[in-house]
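Suppose you are handed only these lines of text.
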Amino acid sequence: MRRQNADDRTGRGQRSAQMNEGLMSLTHPTVSQESPQKAEPLIRLDRISKRFPGVVANDEVSVDIWPGEVHVLLGENGAGKSTLVGILSGIQRPDDGNILIDGKEADIPTPAAALSLGIGTVFQHAMLVPTLTVAENIALGGAPLGRPDRTGIAGDMARVCADLGISVDPNAKVGQLSLGEQQQVEIVRAVMRQSRVLILDEATAMLTPKGAEELGALMGRLVARGFAVIFITHKLNEALAYGHRITVLRLGRKVGELGPDDLERLGPKDATDEVIRLMFGERTAAGPGEEAHVRRTPLTPVPVFEIRDLSVSDPLVPVEDVSFGIRAGEIFGLAGIDGNGQKQFAEALAGQRPIASGEVILSGAEIGHLSPGNRRRIGLRYVTDDRLGEGTVGAFPISLNLLLKQVGEQPFWNRGFEQSSAIADHARQLVSDFDVRTPGIETPIGKLSGGNIQKALLARELTGDARVVIFAKPTYGLDVQNIRATRDRIRAAADRGLAVLLISTDLEEVLELSDRIAVMSQGRIVGTTENDTGARTRVGAMMSGVAA
Ligand SMILES: Nc1ncnc2c1ncn2[C@@H]1O[C@H](COP(=O)(O)OP(=O)(O)OP(=O)(O)O)[C@@H](O)[C@H]1O
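From them, the structure of the protein bound to adenosine-5'-triphosphate can be written out as follows.
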């Protein structure tokens, strides 16, 4: 892990003056190199609030963005980071609060407005046209620096690239560049459009370790030249290696900020501990009925569901060598930041994706070669997080959706003929048992609220001869009541003796329900722990890429 010295970090170092002259005159007439840490921040977000139905994504968040600093935004999935930068980049409008740029109140109604205010955004997946060259992409959407001609653009680009230490061929087709190089092109484009603030939203998430390191070094060079960088990451080592200031968000609120002095004083180890405490520390607000995890039924000694050395091919996140077992009555939590292979893993277990190698064993029998339907018949159930896409057919009535995985089977179909009264009886029973609020069983399921669709999915997957249930992000996007109802169902399923795999990006949920917890990162299990005292910190550390 590399930390820059204080001069580097504030951009006050001697090297900046001459080195930057060319670039600064080209791009940055307003940022003073003498004192980037002047009294006024470049951007002040003042008590910004943003609400979505059922959730406060940003709750009076105040953040100052200084030139010459990489400002890291940290927080669990759903903490409110993307909403906050979305407000800055003109994608979202705040409900309350003010944005000040250079001390003056600013309105950012559109992405174009953000650009014209000097705020550029670089996304995880580069937003360039792959069939065009680098220079053509840079010229797209308006000529940077008022230069309509290609030669002029190429000249400006060469200067910016040279100054930032980037070597990209302007004539190369973007589709042939690595993702890291594409992001560099986006940064060059933003600089050439006179951006003063660069937002990098999980820009390192898809990069190789080398690509991430190069991007980190480039961020360092940018801030040394007086730019401000807002960097969102889930990796603590990156936050501490490249960040000069760290703001931690939790459940939409700002829960802490470590400035350059704090980071210097604490050093990497104590700063890591402090950030983990802020991100995952004591529960801030217990929801109704939330309580510490209590085991209610004794577990069987032998796992009923076992995964041995399972690997799943995937171009983005391959799953590698995953092994664990779940006993009847046990809830095994699989925590992790979204997009770390959980979906690929769950789909492979459910039979929706081929397994590259390894075994899936249910009650002693290897089932990895079985179709999804046959896995279901022997008791394996999968509650997908894609409720409307993969889990249900929106235009079909509830009654049919409740039987979607049993179409053609007795007693609901007989020699290909629908048995309407059996289907209706079954639907009425489940709608009543699972409290699905609907005008009727013939209502298209797509017309129901998210919470009621989830109830119908649970009804379908938890009834019959279920023995193992895999839940993928089961409460994602639900309101508080439906979250409670879903968690109660999960616990009740385990209490009935089912083996439960709970895949969730919500650490509170995993801690509330699980007996044991594993963390998946980049397709691998990076650690497993009992859900006992200290589990929160251990799991939080593993989720942030810090060894527990
Ligand atoms: N367009 C939207 N409509 C409804 N809810 C939304 C919308 N955008 C975000 N949310 C909700 O707002 C909350 C904050 O989301 P946000 O994406 O800002 O978090 P985040 O910290 O960026 O998470 P992640 O690390 O997963 O990207 C979440 O509960 C999310 O579900």
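What can we learn from it? Residues 1-36, 283-292 have pLDDT under 50 and may be disordered. The chain has 19 helices and 22 strands.
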